[in-house]
């Protein structure tokens, strides 16, 4: 993958479509969201995979319902459009991020040795299935935002020996099942150079398997300044000499009707998405122009990474419209997480389509980024 990546995480697209979401290009013509994105420069699709995102009663957890069948359907569409894609193993039945890395239901009670075998087998078997169906990913993320580890509590920081053990098992499985794919380790908070230095030092000191790419999340309202991101990318390029991908990024195009349209009370979950509180903290206004300017600044920065190691970026969930029935968590998921909710859509004001599914100016700028 030598082409500069202008990517889109479309993990929730099938759910949005099933719930009635419709998409329109700049000429007003309705079309498939993935086709619209590809038409305007998107060349890479990112898809998350959860182990078993269903309750024991067979109810979906929502959030895109990212089981293997859903992933394969979206991967097939990407392949038909000539797009590369990245598969992200969460090693969890639902969302995995620095604040939660819940053990899959089927793996509860396993000791570390058994967990290592489970990670290897799940990764290997999944990739073999994809390969048999002509749906092999070009890039595989072994874990999602594993800053604080994975498979908690066994692999929760500071248990660096277990973190390295589990991630290494996934990397070995990728190499064995799909030697043509590149492996990626993904952390959050891309503007924090010290965090990345310490994490990869711990990983190496504990015998972590070699990997191919480093992925970073960078959200301007959570992850520090662009100057901090540039410092981190430069240091990572110097230390590791590996491609560096901003594997998650986004910012808002509006704060208007943010809470009402996304099914949230104004006081609810203020820290979760790009609302007025976050807008006040970043230099780009949450407007159409501000969203576009942010992406131009980000892409220019990535292209400045030494030795051409800035591989590109992936915009997170640009097609997650606020349609009834599509939210970050279903009632079954909230029960599973013991979370009071609400489980609505907190991301639609950061999409590359407006609330009615019409393409926004930032997408028109994609091809030139």
Sequence-ordered SSE layout with sheet pairings:
Elements: E1 5-9, H1 13-18, H2 33-39, E2 44-49, H3 68-80, E3 84-89, E4 96-97, E5 100-101, H4 112-132, E6 139-142, H5 160-177, E7 182-187, H6 193-205, E8 213-218, H7 226-240, E9 244-249, H8 258-261, H9 276-279, H10 288-303, E10 310-316, H11 331-337, H12 361-364
Parallel strand pairs: 1-2, 1-10, 2-3, 3-6, 6-7, 7-8, 8-9, 9-10
Antiparallel strand pairs: 4-5
Helix pairs in contact: 4-5, 6-7
Notes on the structure:
This protein is an alpha/beta fold and 369 residues long. The protein has a single domain, classed as Glycosidases (TIM Barrel, Alpha-Beta Barrel). The chain contains 12 helices and 10 strands. It has helices at residues 13-18, 33-39, 68-80, 112-132, 160-177, 193-205, 226-240, 258-261, 276-279, 288-303, 331-337, 361-364, and strands at 5-9, 44-49, 84-89, 96-97, 100-101, 139-142, 182-187, 213-218, 244-249, 310-316. The strands form 2 sheets. Strands 1-2-3-6-7-8-9-10 form an 8-stranded parallel barrel, surrounded by 4 helices. Strands 4-5 form a two-stranded antiparallel ribbon. Helix 4 runs parallel beside helix 5 (160-177) and helix 6 (193-205) runs parallel beside helix 7 (226-240). The longest helix has 21 residues, at 112-132.
The percentage helix is 25-40%
Characterize the biggest β-sheet: 8 strands, parallel, barrel
Helix-strand category:
alpha/beta
pLDDT average, as an integer?
94
In CATH, the topology is named TIM Barrel
**Cα distance spanning the termini:** 17 Å
CATH class: Alpha Beta
Which parts are unreliable, with pLDDT below 50 for 5 consecutive residues or more? Answer: none
- The tally of structural domains comes to 1
Strand content: 5-15%
Named CATH architecture: Alpha-Beta Barrel
Number of helices: 12
H-E order: EHHEHEEEHEHEHEHEHHHEHH
- The radius of gyration over CA amounts to 19 Å
Strand order of the largest sheet: 1-2-3-6-7-8-9-10
Assign the CATH superfamily.
Glycosidases
Tertiary shape = globular
Q: Quick one: how many beta strands?
A: 10
Instruction: Identify the quaternary structure here.
Output: single chain
């Amino acid at each position: 993958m030598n082409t500069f990546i202008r990517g889109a995480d479309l993990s929730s697209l099938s759910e949005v479509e099933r719930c009635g979401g419709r998409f329109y290009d700049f000429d007003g013509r309705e079309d498939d969201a993935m086709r619209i994105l590809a038409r305007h420069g998107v060349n890479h699709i990112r898809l998350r995979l959860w182990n078993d995102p269903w309750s024991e009663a067979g109810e979906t957890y929502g959030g895109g319902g990212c089981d293997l069948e859903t992933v394969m359907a979206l991967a097939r569409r990407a392949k038909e459009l000539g797009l590369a894609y990245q598969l992200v193993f969460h090693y969890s039945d639902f969302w995995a991020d620095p604040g939660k890395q819940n053990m899959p239901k089927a793996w509860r009670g396993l000791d570390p040795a058994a967990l290592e075998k489970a990670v290897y087998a799940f990764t290997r078997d999944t990739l073999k299935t994809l390969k048999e169906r002509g749906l092999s990913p070009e890039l595989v993320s072994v874990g999602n935002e594993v800053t604080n580890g994975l498979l908690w509590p066994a692999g929760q920081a500071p248990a660096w020996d277990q973190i390295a053990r589990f991630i290494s098992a996934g990397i070995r499985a990728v190499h064995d099942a799909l030697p043509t794919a590149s492996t990626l380790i993904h952390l959050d908070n891309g503007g924090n150079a010290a965090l990345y230095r310490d994490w990869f030092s711990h990983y190496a000191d504990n015998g972590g398997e070699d990997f191919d790419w480093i992925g970073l999340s960078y959200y301007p309202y959570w992850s520090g300044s662009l100057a901090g991101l540039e410092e981190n990318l430069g240091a990572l390029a110097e230390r590791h000499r590996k491609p560096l991908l901003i594997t998650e990024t986004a910012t808002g195009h509006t704060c208007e009707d943010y809470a009402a349209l996304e099914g949230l009370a104004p006081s609810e979950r203020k820290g979760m998405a790009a609302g007025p509180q976050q807008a006040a903290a970043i230099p780009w206004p949450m407007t159409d122009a501000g969203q576009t300017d942010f992406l131009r600044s980000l892409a220019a920065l990535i292209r400045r990474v030494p030795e051409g190691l800035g591989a590109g970026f992936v915009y997170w969930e640009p097609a997650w419209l606020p349609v009834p029935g599509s939210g970050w968590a279903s009632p079954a998921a909230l029960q599973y997480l013991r979370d009071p909710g609400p489980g609505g859509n907190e991301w639609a004001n950061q999409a590359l389509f407006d609330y009615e599914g019409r393409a926004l100016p930032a997408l028109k700028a994609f091809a030139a980024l």
